[in-house]
Design goal:
The longest helix has 12 residues. The chain has about 170 residues and is mainly α. The protein contains ten helices and no strands.
Length: about 170
């Protein structure tokens, strides 16, 4: 995913509502972030930017009042998207937490941010340190025994993904 910071800035400067939803792409900001994005995938612009590792756009959206805990899409919320995405470094996870992201909110395919980080695929193509993602989430109060999501719990997610990806 490749976002266009200049277009996002222009939209924001001209009064774009960072929380508006509707249409094929969810809203103009989401379309500017990824011309192929559908709102079912990302839910909102903050999720798309978080998933894509676009720190500058995440900062812009937060500065302009986006709802850091908005729910929707496959990833549930921006913190889950950042916790799972190989493109998102731990700096986005920390930025979302600093701006009030609810670390234990449930929703989306992965249940919680900790479960999303626990499902991450460890491979040689990724330079993202998912262990650091898990550590940051735990250090900030993530519930290690949370239930829900596709895998049931963070521990089950890590065990199942480890089994299938290391075969």
């Amino acid at each position: 995913m490749e976002g266009n910071v200049d277009i996002v800035k222009l939209l924001l400067e001209n009064g774009a509502d960072v929380n508006t939803q509707g249409g094929k792409y969810g809203n103009a900001l989401l379309a500017a972030l990824d011309v192929n994005a559908q709102c079912e995938e990302y839910g909102n612009a903050l999720q798309a930017a978080s998933c894509g590792g676009q720190v500058d756009i995440v900062k812009l959206l937060l500065e302009n009042g986006t709802d850091v805990n908005a729910q929707g899409g496959r990833y549930g919320n921006a913190l889950q998207a950042a916790s799972l995405a190989f493109a998102a470094g731990v700096d986005i996870v920390e930025l979302l937490l600093e701006n009030g992201a609810d670390i234990n909110v449930e929703g989306g395919k992965y249940g919680t941010a900790l479960q999303a980080a626990s499902t991450a695929v460890f491979d040689s193509y990724s330079d993202c340190d998912y262990v650091k993602h898990v550590e940051v989430l735990l250090d900030n109060g993530a519930d290690i025994n949370s239930r829900g999501g596709q895998y049931g719990s963070p521990t089950q997610a890590a065990a199942i993904r480890g089994i299938f990806w290391n075969m």
